[in-house]
Amino acid sequence: MEKKETIAAISTGMTNSGISIIRICGEEAFQIIDRIYKGKHPLSKAESHTIHHGYIVDRDSVIDEVLVSIMRAPKTFTGEDTVEINCHGGMFVTNAILEIVLKNGARLAQPGEFTKRAFLNGKMDLSQAESVMDVIQSQNEYALKSSISQLKGSLKKKIKEIRDLILYHTAYIETALDDPEHLDMENYGEELLPVIENLSVEIKKLIDSADAGRIMKEGIKTVILGKPNVGKSSLLNVLTGYERAIVTDIEGTTRDILEEQVRVGGVVLNLIDTAGIRGTDDEIEKIGVDRALKYADEADLILYVVDASRTLDENDERIIDYIYDRKTVILLNKSDLKMQIMKENLQNIIKQRHANVERSIDRNSENSIDNLLDNNIFNEKNYIVSISTKEGKGIEELVDVLKKIAFQGELHFNEEVYITNLRQKEALQKTCESLEKVKESIVSGMPEDFYSIDLMDAYETLGTIVGEKMGEDLINEIFSKFCMGK
Amino acid sequence: MKYSVNSVWENKEDYDIAVVGAGHAGCEAALAAARMGFRTILFTVSIDGIALMPCNPNIGGSSKGHLVRELDALGGEMGKVIDRTFIQSKMLNQSKGPAVHSLRAQADKSNYSKVMRQVLQNQERLDIKQMEVTDILTEEGLTSGVRKVVGVRTYSGASYRCKAVILCTGTYLRARCIYGEVSMQTGPNGLQPANYLTDSLKSLGIKMYRFKTGTPARIDKNSIDFSKMEEQKGDERVVPFSFTTNPDDVQIEQVSCWLTYTNETTHDIIRNNLNRSPLFSGMIEGTGPRYCPSIEDKVVKFSDKNRHQVFIEPEGSETTEMYVGGMSSSLPEDVQYAMYRSVRGLEHAKIVRNAYAIEYDCIDARQLKSTLEFKTVEGLFSGGQFNGSSGYEEAAAQGLVAGINAARKLQGKEGLVINRSQGYIGVLIDDLVTKENHEPYRMMTSRAEYRLLLRQDNADLRLTKIGYEVGLIDEERYQKLLKKEQMISDEIERVNETNIGTSNEVQELLKMHNSTPLISGIKLAELVRRPELSYECLKPIDKERPELPIDVMEQVNINIKYEGYIKRQQRQVEQFKKLEDKKIPEDLDYEKIKSLRIEAKQKLTAMRPMSIGQASRISGVSPADISVLLVYLGGAR
Predict the structure, then answer these.
(1) What CATH number does residue A179 fall under?
(2) Residues B133, B152 contacting (CB under 8 angstroms)
(3) What ipTM does this complex have?
(4) For an engineered disulfide with A109, which of A7, A150, B183, B527 has Cβ 3.0 to 4.6 Å away?
């Protein structure tokens, strides 16, 4: 079915290893590599099973110096024409090259797709079939789960808003078509055009924000969480004082929020200071945490400060539940005082609470992926560092952790999430194209029923990002928002 | 009381196929079966109920019009009969794209029934019998867990042996009509219900649902003040439904419909009496359709609207009854009077028939194959409202397919499945047999994903070949179609290759249509694609144009004008077909496929989809499950 499509993916893991490999496979593999490779000879003419030195270029700029292997069908892993680009490791270069490959005509491979093709092309025997299917199933579930958990918060909300708007307008048009005597579409195009233009702008913003280099260029959006008096401000001071830091005050969007850009160990952090939000009585304290969590929704990274000299309270519990699916560094502060909480028991508490969160999320689905995530979700994603902001202890360790997170691409905590990210970007681009077509139809004076065809495409593509199918959405919207009927 | 043991006897007449119910589904099913060469008996609880239109007095409308055209292209009867009995006709959405143009005709109800009955009566190999069928007779089938139809038994105790049975019981199964506190054990229009068949079906393991629908009151024309309403006339030039009808024959004198509105007083009356609605008292248990809500539903759900449209439509030319479209209800009789009389123009309305809600038994259609044969009862087919649909057109379309497939089964041929890229009929049946359905299913244009290809204007080009292959279209009609196809493709080719220069005549014509003048020569097709121009209006500058029939010119225009969109959908269809063509063996044991998720295993085992495409449309089956299935089937190959 997909035999004709050319697919690509990073076939090495996403660690900071010396070399990464990007595999391209399918009928157009050689044409694609010709478009992006600069070397002595065009590779489409190269002999099978040879390796070539050269450069990957994006238009005129050189991205990386690479070695490229050329393997012609049928003697390849998948049985199809295959190109493998050996580039310098590190997620940004690897990612950049993959994006160029995709831009030049390949489609991002689905989890397990190379293996699936190998099997369907008869490159594996029947007994291997089952393991192939297991791989597909588990990787898909894992990718879906990761992408959706990653989407929690503002991005998901944004996509939902956009989808809702698209659905509403589609439903309006469709209702008017189904029941022309009830609903009028006079000049609907004029009304719809600015809506579509706005949506395009919104989506383009999202696409830009998905740029893999953003973290390096703009810094890691970081929020410090913690109940009052655990040492949030002290941490901020320590960090801003570190390395004679470049501290810039960025005008916040609200009065009580201040964003500071801090460079520690070569990592740029955009620290959102929620420390100013505090109060004495319980109610105000709770509001403070509520607010901080709201800012945390938008953050790439969370620094959660725990006062090791006091026991955990309900505010801590809320924060722990919140960081379930967020990249977090937990700081066990006041290690200079008598410690009430040890690293190990904090870890246990977190594990337990996260297991509960997991269960409540999975209540309606099967728990086949529980095993996959249960024990390692916390370990893989989070770090606990003991510090004393008072004595400046443990700060070096914190900086090391931050470096590791930033440079080894851990902000995408594993390969699957990273891939889903690209997939999301692809979907957003496709959505933009659909909206562009709606615009064209309106401008060129096509009848309204043509708008809804592309609107539905846009809705459906956006749905793949949040893992939702179109299903009966449109029909339900028609019935719930518009009055039809004989 | 059902028959006693003493009255049991066997009717020895030799029937091949029995059709239960003579509504729109049953008529088409019986005609198809008989026309395909099988001795057919059509049972109905009342001869007077043949092809009855118990609700709205029209046929067609958005997307339903498509169904009728498709049915006609396949050799069905509905289009021909409405062409002979309509009293007003309109092409809806004419200002929109060709995909959503849709025909709707007001019918003379009693004339429609009469004409359809004549067609049935004159059909060779077809007998009509007024009798309630109470039992489906079966024996052990060849496959385990599957039974096989051998005949039916009637209320009188008679049994009829046959090889296939088609159930088209509509809204008659254990029917109950309700308004206010009045509940009557009758089918629509006070006709006798069928109270026994449900049990027989249940004993065969068939899962039943209970659905609800409703109809507004009929008001005496003489009591209506039309001067207070807006007149709604038919089209100047009527387009017939049937591809076989000569357009000149349908240019008749038409009657009008009338538009008026409810108002706040109406809504107050309804709101004040909601507690007397049988829905509130729990007397109605069935699930009603959202697309045709009762007026009380509308008032509650859309409380911000201060008025709703009301269409007053004639029920025929020889009756004074008028249908009150938009105001179906199950409120008590006195509230009905008050509510209708609050509407402008209906102040002195006399109600001839009260509005009512009707409840009836139907099936979960996921028990059917795409051929409309039950998965677990060989030879048992079903169509129409019994399958959980609503509407005359939806019923007729299913009836035709069920009839064709019962006949093909007896011919030993593979069942006919029209897929989603071939017609609305395909979309309708596929939705019914794959998706969970909680209300009577109505066709809607948004349900058809390839609607630019599934136009009402090209139904013959899409389906008449199939009608010919199954034996419902004669040689003459088929040859005409082939000729039409040829003319269309020849002319498209010519228009694509014709050059248009920058002569004065050309520029003048463009100016006349507010179209940008040409800078250099251009292909004629490019001009046709401009939104402000058409194939027809370019005739003066197209010197080599041959004389062509109107329907051919229409196809040429649409195919050139919307070529980009049409090609895009054609590419989507290619993708769709690849999955559709990957058949799943009927006996596939999903339990054996370890990597399928449990939910997918259960759904697939219950549904037994016939292709990967169909499997992918089942809710609860994920893309990963489909990949797994593909790998598994690829390996098994």
Answers:
(1) 1.20.120.430
(2) yes
(3) 0.90
(4) A7
Instruction: Specify whether A37 is located in the same domain as A186.
Output: no
pLDDT at A148: 53
Whether residue A391 is contained in a domain is answered as yes
Q: Of B401 and A310, which is predicted with more confidence? A: B401
Q: Are residues A389 and A430 in the same domain?
A: no
Is B443 an 8 Å CB contact of chain A? Answer: no
Mean pLDDT of B13-19: 96
Q: Where residue A340 sits, what CATH number does that domain have?
A: 3.40.50.300
pLDDT of B32? 98
Rounded to the nearest angstrom, the minimum Cα separation between B380 and chain A is 30
Quick: pLDDT tens for A178-209. 988 888 888 899 999 999 999 999 888 877 76
Query: What CATH number did the domain enclosing A100 receive?
Result: 3.30.1360.120
Q: Residue A100: name the closest of A88, A85, A114 by CA.
A: A85
- For residues A178 and A294, membership in a common domain is answered with no
Contact residues, A window 366-425, toward B, CB-based 8 Å cutoff: 366, 368
pLDDT of residue B628: 83
Would you call B308 an interface residue with chain A, using a CB distance cutoff of 8 Å? yes
The per-residue pLDDT for range A291-307, each reduced to its tens digit, is: 777 778 777 788 888 88
At residue A261's C-alpha, the angle toward residues A257 and A266, to 5°, is 150
pLDDT tens sequence across B532-555: 999 999 999 999 999 999 999 999
Please check whether residue B325 is in contact with residue B312, taking contact to mean a CB–CB distance below 8 angstroms: yes
Least confident range of A134-143, A421-430, B214-223, B618-627: A134-143
On whether residue A81 sits in a domain, the answer given is: yes
pLDDT tens sequence across A385-401:
888 888 878 888 888 88
Is A177–B632 a contact, with Cβ atoms under 8 angstroms apart? no
DSSP codes joined into one string, B156-201 = TSEEEE-SEEEE--TT-BT-EEEETTEEE---GGG---B-SHHHHH
- Residue B229 has φ and ψ, to the nearest 5°, of -120, 165
Weakest-pLDDT range from A337-351, B68-82, B179-193: A337-351
Average pLDDT, chain A: 76
Q: What is the pLDDT of residue A140?
A: 58
What are B592's two structure tokens? 């054996």
Q: Which helix (H) or strand (E) holds B90?
A: strand B86-92
Instruction: Please count the structural domains in chain A.
Output: 3
In terms of residue numbers, what domain contains A25? 7-124
What domains, with CATH codes, occur in chain B?
A: 5-212+360-468 (3.50.50.60), 215-358 (2.40.30.260), 497-568 (1.10.10.1800), 582-636 (1.10.150.570)
A124 in reach of chain B (CB within 8 A): no
**Nearest-angstrom CA–CA distance, B600 and B78:** 40
Residues 241-280 of A with CB under 8 A from B: none
Query: How does residue B291 score in pLDDT terms, banded at 50, 70 and 90?
Result: confident
Residue keyed to tokens 């919104």: A202
Whole-angstrom CA distances from B378 to A150, B126, B168, B192, B323 are: 50, 22, 17, 29, 42
Domain check: are A405 and A438 in the same one?
no
**Res. A35 pLDDT band, cuts 50 70 90:** very high
Whether residue A326 sits in one domain with residue A377: yes
| pLDDT above 70: residue A52 | yes
CA distance A445 to chain B (A): 6
What span, in angstroms and rounded, lies between the C-alpha atoms of B28 and A455?
37
Are A120 and A269 found together in one domain? Answer: no
Q: Which residues of B104-138 are buried (b: 16+ CB within 10 A; e: fewer)?
A: bbbbbbbbbbebbbebbeebebbbbbebbbbbbbb
* CA pair distance B24, B113, nearest whole angstrom: 10
Do both A165 and A202 map to the same domain?
yes
Q: Model pTM?
A: 0.78
